[in-house]
Each structure stands twice: as structure tokens, then as C-alpha cells.
Request: fold
Amino acid sequence: MKTLNHWIGGKTVEGTSGNYGPVTDPATGAVTTQVALASPDEVATAVAAAKDAYATWGTSSLSARTAVLFRYRALLDVHRDEIAALITAEHGKVRSDALGEVARGLEIVELACGITTQLKGELSTEVSSRVDVSSIRQPLGVVAGITPFNFPAMVPMWMFPLAVACGNTFVLKPSEKDPSAANLLAELAAEAGLPDGVLNVVHGDRVAVEALLAHPDVAAVSFVGSTPIARHIHATASANGKRVQALGGAKNHMLVLPDADLDAAADAAVSAAYGSAGERCMAISAVVAVGSVADDLVARIKERAEEVTIGPGTDPASEMGPLITAAHRDKVASYVKGAAAQGADVVLDGTAFTVEGFEDGHWIGLSLLDNVSTDSDAYRDEIFGPVL
Reply:
């Protein structure tokens, strides 16, 4: 079995904690990789490498930093298929979705390439009599990113390219469920000329997260994930004097008015609710149908949902893949199974769905619930699966 280790100080570093987590292929359910889970000491080693690198990277010129980023952007473009393949193998999303994720990450790398103008300070003259006010922008030092499973390449690329462009050094703690893309991103950054220690990747679970939140040399933390963990990240890191960006869950609504084009609305609802198996932070999981359009809209959504092809992400015919883990699949299914008991009408029940030849995969079909009360679990919780 493949073992995925940490990336610290510009090279692969074997895990020493003795703890490993399983990485599965969601389409087959087979464990394909074991990922090293970092101890607090290993996290400290990564932070130390980042701190050492900051001594020179933080004072390097903008032209030197952006030169690396331009080369990095070119390498990401060349390797986008390889990155997408890793995403499909460990997350399960279909190839077109995976390529779209890489493209969205590349957009932020391109933004970082133009960081020179963004880092200009400000000068306001005569704000009071003979008083001018100026501001300058400076790096913080070592910053950390804790990223989710649903976009294992895009969300890290929304964080570290901008951080390093601004002169910071970075410690990335990706999801242990689909960690391989993060290592490839770091390896390509090194190939582009990013100095050793500027970007580090430590894999792990809560132990590694808590170590980052408590480490005195980490100046700021950026997090994307569930709301309960976001609250914990914010409270713990800010209590330790760090700047914190903690992005939690959402229940995104789509409002359909009586004069809407119902075919367009149904198409949009199916794409927004079921794309990437609903494992998107911005997935539309609740549709509010106003007035007389409700039943007609539900019928049109049902008709379209039944036509969606579900299968392995490697199959070009697949429009939706499996969920990330069997445990997550079962959690999503529980909302559908409990909906009727809480007063909802189950228009489509995808909980028994499977794919021939891939019976052990983490499959669930598209589910559609109608007449959902606002105090039910399905309405109140972020389901994070193909349930509308």
C-alpha cells in the first residue's frame, strides 16, 4: 500500500508518530493509501521550517516572489490532468468537476502573480491640519491553512499562493481523507523555485490542528469546514493571539417566483443541488417555490434528477460520483430516511442506489424532499450530499 508522508522544508519527511489514516477510493471502497498523521512535534518541525524560511522570504523582493509564481502557474497548467486524477481517485468527483476545481485554483495563482499592485500602501494627505496618514502592508510571518475534503486542490490554492506572494510562509494541513493533491501542489511549487520551507504540508487529524492553533510562531490561521469546527478554530486560535479566518457551513436557498421560467429554474436547481454529489459549500440545498409554481417545479426537478448518470468519476459518462466516505454516505442517507417521520414528502429516495460492478463504493442516489418544515433536521442541518 502507498504511504503518503509530510512535505517539510522542501522535501518529503516520513511520519514518526506511528499513526496513519486510511485513504479510500470512493468508487470502490478500497483503501489505496495510508497517510501519516502528524504529532505535535512534527507540526512544530514544520512551523520551525517555515519560520526559518521567513527570515529571507519575508524580505525578498516582489519581483522575486512573482517570478516563482509565474513559473508555478505554468507548471500547474501542465500538470492539471494529473492533479485532477488525484482528486477523482480520492474525492470521487467526476473528471470534469475535478478539472474545473483545478481551473478555479489556477485563477487565484494568477491573481497572486499580479500581487505587486495589490500590495501598494495608501497615503491620505491633509486629513487634518498638517496631518497626513499613510499605511504600508507587511507580511505576518508563519501562517497556516486547514482545508476541507470537498476541494482538496482549489481551497489550498485559494490560500497559500496569496500568502506566500505577500511574503508569508505557509503550513498547510489538508484533509486526511484526500491528501495526495496537496503534496503534488507542494512538489510543483518547489520545482518552480519556491525556497525550502516557504510551503510545508503536514497531514493529520485533530491532534495536528490543535498543535497549529496553539503554536506561538503561527501568526494567523485560515479554515474552511463545518460550522462547529469553525467556531472551535475561531475561539481557540484567537484566544492564542492569532488572526483567524474561519468559514463554516451554510444552507443556501434558491427562490423561485411565480413568473419564473420553470425549465431554466429546474435545470439550475439540479445542477446546483446535485453537482459534485452536493459536496459543495455553495450547493443549493433548499428551494423556496412561491405560490402556484411549487408542484410543477417539483415535477420538473424530479424528471431531470432521474436522468442524471451516476458512476465512477473515471467514466466519461458519469455526471455525479460517489460520496467521500461510507460514514458520510450513511449520514446523508439518514436525513432522507428520517424526512418522512418529520413530515416531509420523499419525492425521490436515492438511499438504496448502487452501481453495478462497484457495489462497495460510497454510492447514494439523488434525493428530493417536498413540504419540508423549517424545524426538521433536513432543513436545519447542512446535509452536504445530493439531497434537495
